[in-house]
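yo

u said u wanted the structure for the complex thing, so here. seqs first:
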Amino acid sequence: MGERTRQVLPSVLSVLLALAVCWLTIALTRDADTATRAYLQMLWGGVGNWPAFLDGGNANTVLRPLGEAAMKAALLTLTGLSVAVAFKVGLFNIGAQGQMIWGALAAALVGAHVSLPTVLHVPLALLAAAAAGAVWSSIAGILKLKRGVHEVISTIMLNWVAVSLVDNWLVIGPLRAVAEGHQSSITGTAEILSTAQLPRLLGDSSRLNLGFPLALVCALTVWVWLARTNSGYETRAVGLTPEAARAAGIPTLWRAGGAMALAGALAGLAGAVLVLGTEGRYPGTLGAPYGFDGIAIALIGNNHPLGAAVSAAVFGILRAGGTRMQLLGVHKSFPELIQGFALLFVAGRMVWLALLDRRRARQAAVEVPRA
Amino acid sequence: MSLEDASLDIVPGELLAVVGENGAGKSSLMNVLYGLYHPDAGTFLMDGKPVRLKSPRDAIARGIGMVHQHFMLVPTLTVAENVVLGREPTKRGLLDLDRACDEVAATAKRFGFQLDPRARVDTLTVGSQQKVEIVKALHRGAQVLILDEPTAVLTPQESDELAQVMRGLVKQGRTVVLISHKLKEVLGVADRVAVMRRGRTVAEVRASETTVSALASLMVGEGSRGAALTGVPLTSGASGTGTAANTHASSPLVPDAKSTHAGFPPPGSVGPDARHDNTGLAPSGPVVLEAKDLRAKGDNGRPALQGVSLTVHAGEIVGIAGVDGNGQRELAEVLTGLRALDGGGGTLLGGPLADLTPARAKARGVGHVPEDRLARAVVKAMTVEENVALGRHRQPPFASGPWVDFKGRRERANQLLTTYDVRPPDPTVKLQALSGGNQQKVVVARELDADPKLLVVVQPTRGLDIGAVAQLGRRMLGAEPDHG
Amino acid sequence: MLEVLHSLLFSTLDAAPALVFAALGAMLSERAGVVSVGVEGMMRTGAFCAAVAALVMPTPLAVLVGMVAGAGLAAVHGFLSIRWRSDQVVSGMALNLVAMAGGTFLLESLFGPNGTPAITQLSRWNVPALAHVPLLGALVGHAAPTYLALTLPFAFHLLLSRTPLGLRLRAVGDKPHAVATLGLSVSGLRWAAVLGGGLMAGLGGAVLSTAVLDRFEQHTPAGLGFMALAAMVFGRWTPLGAFAAALFFAFGNALRIGLASSAPWLLELVPQGFLLALPYLLTLLVLALQGQRGHAPAALGTPYEQESR
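structre next:
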């Protein structure tokens, strides 16, 4: 079994097993028929109802769901990348959620309070978000590198600090949008200017916006950086064997700190894509825990930038389709359950590999009978 | 992992030494005796009856105790807690610490140790920690006490003390099995010596009827010794060169491509007289290293170097001998920029020693083959070619600009793998798939390929078999004529 | 003033048990060397199962069911991290995600969006004679978990510092190889600690749905598990430290809620969000000032491998 297969196979099997287990969950709480139909709805909701479309349906029947899936995939890709990049340098970034919150806030503020033409406004808002996320993750990075504080603990703490400060103070207090006359129950920050909105790529037929290509570009860039540049090589070396990297003259602190900052920047971008692409403002509370999802996405993608993109695409599709499952009375959070199980099974990567190795050993024993 | 057909008889009430080179299987054999490893084949008889030791618990129950090379003490617990762990005295279900302390104090006294049962282990010196280990075994009623390389971490004084302790135990009717590769020390204390080589016991002799050199040739095997070591000041542990007090030469050496070779001083005491061991060349080249009064702390925060001075000329090999753990590693780390100096200084290849960083050391032309290969020299989860590039990865042929030069790297890696006969000669496999000897060849190949002006080599033969040692020795010497 | 203090104390004692139990559970597991970021998920599982069980059985029994459920999740954690030496943080976070989504799914498909039907809460221990005595009265009128939460930390302290089992657990968290060479089972001890931690976390969750509320609510435990982790770290991985930190955090919560109703003007000056962030900020500050290395168990998060060479 090749090295690449060993890396990919456990993830694929885990997702399949998670799908099977979750199908059983519906089948047991409801019945098998409902489970199957719910899965079909999830699929149509994610990739579009192709049979209906090919039967001469409206193009929107596939474009709209695909747009939704791409939107979710973009967010998952960015937070997944955030976690994966930190992993490459040996740090576990549980804090993508907090970094994303600050990124979203920064994007919302720049989007609402700076006036510029679109070509400048969008990049500036994105940049602000990335910077905000990077600053937040760097706190954990500095605590780790200077004080030896474990990043798992510090990023968990920083998540809750971010939630408390932003959701429970800034956006309901100082930064809350001023209500105008009839709009008395406005929540969140002021609406961003139209120049800051991420352009829609397919007009009105789908909510697909610039966020998706942006996320893909990020994934590609991160991959190229890690695989093909000197500093990416150094970063991986630091993550795998820090002492050897240090002995080789690699500036380990800078590489580790840099990767952590990049992780924050990517999570911050996710916040920006959410705000500039779909929400239009920092909402009253940034409910969706895309930051935590990033952990699952990164690990299911085996911490490979492109793997993260692929697993984000898969779960983007499932989650976009999740809303359709409600037609059958299955809660829309169901895909998150699939994702959770997939992560749990991926956590048992060792079990998969042991099973695969045993199977291979048995095959070998059959093929080459003992003399 | 490394035992094939080893036999050993242990007679009650004697001090048996098991000697052999690093990797000869001494520790593996002892771990089998202690129930930590399980033999694939063979029998273990106690008092004539076969026994199976499933775990250390069985061994302990049968009166076998072991003092591991790396102490098995919980640093945050007290001496008494460490000793009674697993067989704690209780009073109404609660731990009876007072009784534990009394018991431990009594055991310590009975065998003549001075230990404070209430002291936390991480506050003790290494020598005292070892005593805790011994007391721990005795406290469990050990009749047979196995000591795995006990003097590796001790000062000469502590080693002498330990020798007396061991004799004392034998006098009290206990059996002591001493594992060591320090022959002189072994002969001074043991009744009988068993020699191991490559996983086999090759001889058992009475200590009074043998000599250091006889044992040494038994250890390395006839013939191969010459091939391995002639003319190479790679003093392997078996060679018996060393400080007067202690017989042992742990063998760090600092040759360079111009055949420079710096020696390590004994603990903190070495002044300007580091011996220069020349391989035919007079130390006439330009001075590449002039270090004065180097001082540095070890990992434990205690002084490891206390005023080391050393001069190395281009074109010479300087061997540094001394008991393990007496600052050799730290000196090597100072010279390669890995450890900060507390005091002293000097020049290294035209720059000051004081603010050396690994990057600066590399830039000045210092190569390093460190003692702990897996932790320091390689990234085992990366491919062989990525490891070949490590350290020079920003220079051609490994890089072009900010990009990795895959083609150049592959070419150079292939070339080195062939030259150094690394097997398999495939630059794309993960380094961890190679054997220890082949990993080391990759490291040596890389360091020599960088054309260093000063090469710092620490224990380059640790864990390697004789053949690999011979080959490495030739490589290092072979590097010399090219430049010298 | 006294009255304010009285009601603050009362609500602190009412809210603290879940946090105390979860923090003790996390501490138990981590002292034996197994990272416990999965407490949030174990609490959620415990809360859900207790609430469901309470529909068909007496509430005290249902609490036990919740504990067992928490231990069940912990068993998965143990299987992955002890038996298979998986990354303990990954395994814990996976359990959090599963418990989060699974709780929502089961709740929605079995009971609908409004949470489980109301159940009988654990009964409160009222002493009318004391109820109106200032301050002292705040100590009565709570359900059993409160009193358990006030005593259990001391029991844990005794367990860790004064029993053979405690000594072994501490040893296995600091240097598992030393424990193994004495013939003790590293994985056995770690299993015991992880399962014990699961029981405690499950108890913490069960208390939320049987004493604090009277049902399983969508968002339970809403981050309380992570606050328990903060309390454990803040309390330097000791039972009494974690206890004190949990009480302190619970007091902070009570103060915030109390202020919101009694002195909203104060919240204008000190924003509520800032008070919410305080436990985490303080924990970060403590970690930043002293570094973590000195207090965390040395082998925390490192899977035990018998042969290290």
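Chain C has a mean pLDDT of 89. The interface with chain B takes residues 158, 162-164, 166-168, 170-171, 174-175, 177-184, 298, 306-307, 309 of chain C (CB under 8 Å).
cya
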